[in-house]
Amino acid sequence: MATRTGGFPIGLRRGWTDWQKDMKSLASWAKGAGFEAIDLGGVTADDAATLAGASLRLGSVDLLDFGSIMASDPSQRKDVIEKNVTYVKRAAAAGAKVFFTCLIPGDPSRARSENYRLAVESYAPICKAIEAAGGALAIEGWPGGAPHLANLCCTPETCRSFLKDVGSKAAGLNYDPSHLIRLGVDPIRFLKEFLPHIHHVHAKDTAIDSEGIYELGRYQSSAFGKPHGFGEYVWRYTIPGHGETRWVDVFNILKSAGYKGIVSVELEDENFNGSEPGEKAGFTHSLAFLRGA
Question: pLDDT digit string (tens) for 104-127?
Fold first, then answer.
């Protein structure tokens, strides 16, 4: 069942736990729960057939080994890029339209300007292959691990430049407000600015702990406490509806632009992850919330 605002199909991003590894079982459960699509890592023809057999859409598919596309070693980088160019053609033949990635520097300690140039250089041939296949690249703004938070296309500065400099109409973004909120970037303003480039949406949220900010500030760790799972000391990722995102506003903005893609639940929430019953509850609670938004 679609969202109330905009009628967007709701999918889920396949996770890493054991119960989600069996594609046929996962597809059967997702269809029975009311989902309309599944995002995959790598996709095969068998995966696509399994989804079609369950009357589910294929959502986004991950680029191969995207943590190494910007590897520091030139030969490794060349190899991974070439594998992805070949993979894009094969995945597109299986029905893939949206290719998911994060721009992860091989050396997070390098100057951000240097890593930006490497990102453009590394992704240009992949974007060209995606464009030739009639697909779209969807970059998620996960900022990467501390202390560097070195990933690119997480904030307007590098998103704006990359979409121009990479030189392909296929280049675009995966809109995930959870990362923007933790970084302090207004997710609604971001959506309005980059609306023409949004090719996929992750339904994931972030809760901000104002009391924790009073105790620790935004950037220091605690001498006595532990960080949140799927978060840090003063913020954590949550299912949609348990965080800061104004989902009705998000859907109205997407509707105004004629967005035709999927809104896909990415489950990263310490209150639900870790067991099959908990994760299924997290997915179904998310689905129920999004249906009414």
Answer: 999 999 999 999 999 999 999 999
Q: What percent of the chain has pLDDT over 70?
A: 100
Start-to-end CA distance of the chain, whole Å, equals 12
**With left for phi above 0 and alpha for psi between -120 and 50, is residue 31 left, alpha or beta?**
alpha
Q: Is 246 helix (H, G, I), strand (E, B) or coil?
A: coil
Angle at 199 between CA 150 and CA 113, to 5 degrees: 25
pTM: 0.97
pLDDT of residue 76: 98
Q: Where are the beta strands (DSSP E) in 161-254?
A: 173-175, 198-203, 205-208, 235-238
Judging by beta carbons within 10 Å of its beta carbon (0-12, 13-18, 19+), is residue 135 exposed, middle or buried? buried
Among residues 173, 235, 242, the alpha carbon closest in space to that of 205 is found at 242
Tokens 């501390």 belong to 146
Confidence band of 293 (pLDDT split at 50, 70, 90): very high
How far is Cα 274 from Cα 147, in angstroms, rounded to an integer?
26
Kindly state the tokens that stand for 63.
Answer: 């680029």
Confidence of residue 63 (pLDDT cuts 50, 70, 90): very high
- 280-287: list long-range contacts, CB under 8 Å, 24+ apart: 280/29, 280/33, 282/239, 283/12, 283/30, 283/33, 283/35, 284/33, 284/34, 285/239, 285/241, 286/203, 286/239, 286/240, 286/241, 287/10, 287/33, 287/34, 287/35
